[in-house]
Design goal:
The protein has about 250 residues and is α+β, with helices and mostly antiparallel strands. It has seven helices and nine strands. The longest helix is centred in the middle third of the chain and has 37 residues, at about 95-130.
Length: about 250
């Protein structure tokens, strides 16, 4: 939940709280933050701000994630940070709507990012299976290997088509929240299982930190949480299909 608060003070806002994780903060000139400008108004009391990281009271700490080092994961605290009102993004109280308007396509970016890692791992395993021999044959000749490759290729393609359909709906200005949530949780799950299984096919070399497949697995595991966990995605889907009054 949002724990950062912004209190109006003349032409400025005084901001206190924290944001974690906040990717890229350690290399950014400014960060975008959701704050509560009216805590009593619920989601209608949320506003967005762009906050320069060199303002007094802003403290940024790197987070030691097990993967996704290229995202520069960070923890940011705000201690009586005075921010000019001109740095507010949009009208006060409209932050929730702005964020919700971006999540549907951001989830597709996450989904396709994970599928790309799965596809690369599948390709690595296919090449390995054609070279690695066991009992006088390439391991690709064994159905225990080749069937897994076939199954994961199918699942990756199915997940990718779901992503493309969601983007098509967006291009047609049609509702696509259900499809976006479906694509996000399904694509990440497909990717995790694919990379794990391909690591087993490659064996101990794949388990090495020097092999990219282990890096991909750590990265994709982290994407389970980005822009909403699988549980959140399924709750969104259920609410829109069945009704919030029933699902809760």
């Amino acid at each position: 939940g949002i724990v950062t608060k912004a209190v109006r003070d003349g032409d400025d806002y005084i901001i206190n709280g924290e944001k974690t994780p906040l990717p890229g903060a350690t290399i950014a000139d400014a960060v975008s933050i959701s704050t509560k400008t009216d805590p009593s108004a619920g989601f209608k009391g949320i506003s967005l701000f762009w906050i320069p990281v060199d303002l007094p009271g802003v403290t940024i700490t790197s987070l030691p994630w097990m993967g996704n080092a290229g995202l520069y994961p960070s923890f940011v605290t705000f201690d009586d940070v005075r921010v000019p009102a001109k740095y507010r993004e949009g009208e006060e109280g409209m932050g929730f709507y702005t964020v919700m308007g971006t999540l549907d396509w951001l989830r597709i970016i996450v989904a396709l990012t994970c599928l790309a890692r799965a596809q690369a791992s599948l390709q690595d395993a296919m090449e390995w299976s054609k070279e690695r021999k066991a009992f006088g044959k390439n391991i690709a000749a064994y159905q225990g290997v080749s069937f897994q490759i076939a199954e994961h290729h199918t699942l990756i393609e199915a997940a990718r088509m779901l992503c493309y359909r969601t983007l098509w709906l967006k291009d047609q200005n049609q509702m696509h929240t259900v499809e976006s949530s479906m694509a996000k949780w399904f694509s990440v799950e497909v990717s995790i299982q694919c990379i794990k299984d391909m690591m087993v096919i490659i064996g101990h070399p794949g388990y090495s930190t020097e092999h990219m497949i282990s890096t991909r697995l750590r990265d994709v595991l982290g994407y389970q949480m980005g822009d909403g966990t699988p549980q959140i995605q399924k709750m969104i889907i259920a609410r829109l299909l069945i009704g919030k009054a029933v699902v809760g």
